[in-house]
Amino acid sequence: MEYLGQKTGVIFNIQKFCIDDGPGIRTTVFLKGCPLRCTWCHNLEGLSQKVGLELDTIQCTHCGKCSEVCKEGCHQLIQDLSGIRHEMDLTHCIHCKACLEQCPQAAILVCGSEKTVDEVIEEVLVDRKFYENSGGGMTLSGGEPLLQGAFAQALLERAKEVGLHTCVETSGAVSAQVIEKVAPFVDLFLFDIKETDEAQHIHYTGQSYKQIHENLRTLNALGKAIRMRCPIIPGVNDRESHFDALVALYEELEYVEGIQLMPYHDLGIGKKSRYGLKKVGESFRVPSQEEAQGWQDNIDRKVEASHKKQLINK
């Protein structure tokens, strides 16, 4: 039987001193792989579950050695009126790494790494004092961290063994079995609800929301603490009917603690060329701070006026 700490998974970042990924000061572990293809995605490096490649366009000198050795046509040097640019499209990449080995400028880099549970937890525990002083801990994010279900479960189980508070940021787009297996080791779920209109959800994420909402209800039935986190994209879901549907979910589910709106930002747009992606990273209008605050104020008013909130206040 495999020792828990030796179980391996693929991550693309371990970010320290996070204050927006759960209570207190936290270390967020980003796992690779996501079943959704949200057109506004900003963590494009987390979409593929495999260790991949990234292109440093500043270091690239357009020597063409990568395109010479790549048999799949992933590297193209394009010349137009603005000059020469290196386009990397990893759609057909077979991960042979021949381009990486031939690049004289080290402009092609490895994106992601395979790590054991023990290796990750050892790095997380470096900042244990900060967690203890702030009520923080470890958060799993992605990608969709629960897509690597066995690895995520092992990380969470080990974290609880050493006394860490645990959060999981999830889209909920995984099987009910995975949700049920990890739930005992999670203190707080930060649960994304991206759309409440089925046709819109399919159009903008590539999947139905039915399993996602079912998993949200499963966690509620298990009595798990949940905070709904909802990306708001101008022109997509910044409508009153969506806000009302979010509050209806909040009212229905006893263990949902609140609704946090996550205004769209365009940090993912520049990553398309860096990670060789063509079909994601669509650009939308970035809302002003006043507009974003208006959305949150609107939701907060609806939550305060809800029957559930009135019962809590009694």
UniProtKB/TrEMBL annotation:
<feature type="domain" description="4Fe-4S ferredoxin-type">
    <location>
        <begin position="51"/>
        <end position="80"/>
    </location>
</feature>
<dbReference type="Pfam" id="PF13187">
    <property type="entry name" value="Fer4_9"/>
</dbReference>
<keyword id="KW-0949">S-adenosyl-L-methionine</keyword>
<dbReference type="InterPro" id="IPR017900">
    <property type="entry name" value="4Fe4S_Fe_S_CS"/>
</dbReference>
<dbReference type="InterPro" id="IPR058240">
    <property type="entry name" value="rSAM_sf"/>
</dbReference>
<protein>
    <submittedName>
        <fullName>Glycyl-radical enzyme activating protein</fullName>
    </submittedName>
</protein>
<keyword id="KW-0479">Metal-binding</keyword>
<dbReference type="InterPro" id="IPR013785">
    <property type="entry name" value="Aldolase_TIM"/>
</dbReference>
<dbReference type="GO" id="GO:0016491">
    <property type="term" value="F:oxidoreductase activity"/>
</dbReference>
<dbReference type="InterPro" id="IPR001989">
    <property type="entry name" value="Radical_activat_CS"/>
</dbReference>
<keyword id="KW-0560">Oxidoreductase</keyword>
<dbReference type="InterPro" id="IPR007197">
    <property type="entry name" value="rSAM"/>
</dbReference>
<dbReference type="InterPro" id="IPR017896">
    <property type="entry name" value="4Fe4S_Fe-S-bd"/>
</dbReference>
<dbReference type="Pfam" id="PF04055">
    <property type="entry name" value="Radical_SAM"/>
</dbReference>
<dbReference type="InterPro" id="IPR034457">
    <property type="entry name" value="Organic_radical-activating"/>
</dbReference>
<keyword id="KW-0408">Iron</keyword>
<keyword id="KW-0411">Iron-sulfur</keyword>
<feature type="domain" description="Radical SAM core">
    <location>
        <begin position="20"/>
        <end position="297"/>
    </location>
</feature>
<dbReference type="GO" id="GO:0046872">
    <property type="term" value="F:metal ion binding"/>
</dbReference>
<dbReference type="InterPro" id="IPR012839">
    <property type="entry name" value="Organic_radical_activase"/>
</dbReference>
<feature type="domain" description="4Fe-4S ferredoxin-type">
    <location>
        <begin position="84"/>
        <end position="113"/>
    </location>
</feature>
<comment type="similarity">
    <text>Belongs to the organic radical-activating enzymes family.</text>
</comment>
<dbReference type="GO" id="GO:0051539">
    <property type="term" value="F:4 iron, 4 sulfur cluster binding"/>
</dbReference>
<dbReference type="InterPro" id="IPR040074">
    <property type="entry name" value="BssD/PflA/YjjW"/>
</dbReference>
<keyword id="KW-0004">4Fe-4S</keyword>
